[in-house]
Design goal:
This protein is an alpha/beta fold and about 450 residues long. The protein contains 15 helices and 14 strands. Strand 12 and strand 13 form a beta hairpin.
Length: about 450
């Protein structure tokens, strides 16, 4: 949407600048909003750090990769590591030793050993890579201890937790970034650059997904992700994992920075696949066959934004099908869609919008994001989902060392994560619409969109 049309919308919608700046709550809030306990942290800039001192909570599946990446980042010091599993804790310490770096202090012994680590005064940021239920409490404890929190997805599991994290970030003036790594993929960065240059025209619609067959995780019984993630399919019916596809589309559409989610409606298919898989792969009396799997195999959620755009978000970790995040953005001049990558434009490109252009060579050459141009080869060399993990961590450290605002803030993490909870609420009410909270308390209307950083 052009600046002119955006201003016209804000005027006709009755959203006064003074109201936004004062933090008044806009209409259609999904829950009562208490007054802010501190200033907005949109665009938060903290004092430059010569060395970013890091502590880790959780170094099992995701966390060990983060430790290894930090071993290859300039300007960081790994101070301490915490995990309840001595085996993975020792593995992480060995990775630091192998990089010829000082041996970090370790914390273990109980679920709350991390609080002893947080009591240290030689840690600036904490990387949290634990099971989902721990994300919100650990992020809150981290900020309360005077440190910046960087949390694996999702940020929280309830509307109340989302508000608690936002309130804590504002009161402490600490960063709380949900580490949505997909925003740092080459294709997602390129599309963001194309959107900012107006290649697709005025944006109308996006599609985001997490389609990733993960039934095999049900065989992880005592440890690893499947030991706890499987049980979420017995607790909630909705989109359990919305952020990977939704994060990039939200950045394309300037969500929380000129637009925001207004309301959603959600539907799920029957929950059949995991029970059938359990019957096929486990004995009849196996614990996996005693579970009641209630999460629909395929969830489809539709989001309407304040500026009238639409977003389809899907979740499917059960059916046999190829991996996809959709990553589709449609504008008045054309469309980009992922998996496989393809582009169709009315003006520009081949000029024939009835046919897909599937050769990305010329598009990369023209629209590769400056961050990828600068760090892409290094990111690919270090790995992590094609380099997006390394690039995300590199960018986090760069911002902290150079006194720049992070690319993602606490409002992004809350807005993208809350779709999980609200999709369930919609399903429980015959798919009626549910309002999405305005975690920015009205500040979205005048927030500056994420630019093409590194340009």
């Amino acid at each position: 949407m052009t600046d002119f049309n955006r201003r016209k919308f804000l005027k006709t919608a009755g959203i006064a600048t003074a109201s936004a700046l004062s933090g008044n709550v806009l209409a259609h809030s999904a829950a009562p909003v208490s007054p802010s306990q501190g200033a907005s942290v949109i665009g938060l800039v903290t004092p430059k750090m010569d060395i970013v001192r890091v502590g880790f909570i959780g170094v099992g599946q995701r966390g060990i990769g983060h430790v290894k990446h930090f071993c290859h980042l300039d300007g960081v010091a790994i101070t301490a590591i915490c995990d309840t599993d001595d085996k993975v804790l020792n593995r992480a310490v060995s990775a630091v030793k192998e990089a010829n770096l000082p041996v970090p202090e370790t914390y273990t012994g109980s679920d709350y050993a991390y609080r002893d680590m947080l009591a240290r005064d030689d840690i600036d940021i904490v990387i949290i890579s634990t099971p989902w239920k721990w994300h919100a409490p650990m992020a809150i404890d981290t900020m309360e201890s005077g440190k910046h929190a960087f949390v694996e997805v999702p940020l929280a599991l309830s509307v109340e937790e989302c508000w608690q994290i936002v309130d804590t970030a504002e009161r402490t003036q600490k960063n709380c970034m949900m580490m949505e790594n997909v925003n740092y993929g080459r294709d997602e960065l390129m599309v963001l650059n194309m959107v900012r240059q107006g290649v697709f025209g005025e944006l109308l619609h996006g599609e985001a997904a997490y389609i990733h067959e993960l039934r095999w995780q049900m065989k992880e019984l005592e440890s690893k992700t499947g030991s706890w993630r499987t049980h979420w399919h017995t607790k909630r019916n909705g989109n359990l994992y919305p952020t990977h596809g939704l994060g990039p589309v939200s950045q394309y559409m300037n969500i929380n920075r000129g637009d925001r989610f207004d309301y959603l409606t959600s539907m799920s298919s029957p929950a059949l696949g995991r029970q059938l898989y359990a019957q096929r792969e486990f004995a009849a009396d196996h614990p996996r066959n005693q579970l009641n799997y209630i999460n629909g195999d395929i969830n489809t959620t539709l989001i309407k934004t304040k500026l009238g755009r639409t977003i389809m978000v899907q979740h499917d970790t059960t059916t046999p099908r190829p991996y996809s995040r959709h990553n589709l953005i449609q504008g008045t001049n054309g469309v980009f869609a992922g998996f496989p990558n393809r582009i169709a434009l009315e003006q520009g490109g081949s000029g024939d919008f009835h046919k897909w252009d599937t050769d990305m060579t010329t598009w990369y050459a023209k629209y590769d994001h400056p961050l990828w141009q600068r760090m892409g080869k290094e990111a690919e060399r270090n790995g992590g989902h094609g380099g997006m993990d390394f690039l995300m961590l590199w960018r986090m450290v760069y911002c902290l060392r150079n006194g720049e605002a992070l690319d993602q803030d606490v409002y992004d993490g809350a807005a993208w994560s809350v779709i999980n909870i609200l999709s369930e609420q919609s399903l429980q009410n015959r798919s009626n619409s549910v309002d999405v909270p305005d975690f920015t308390r009205g500040m979205w209307a005048n927030a500056k969109p994420l630019g093409i950083v590194g340009a």
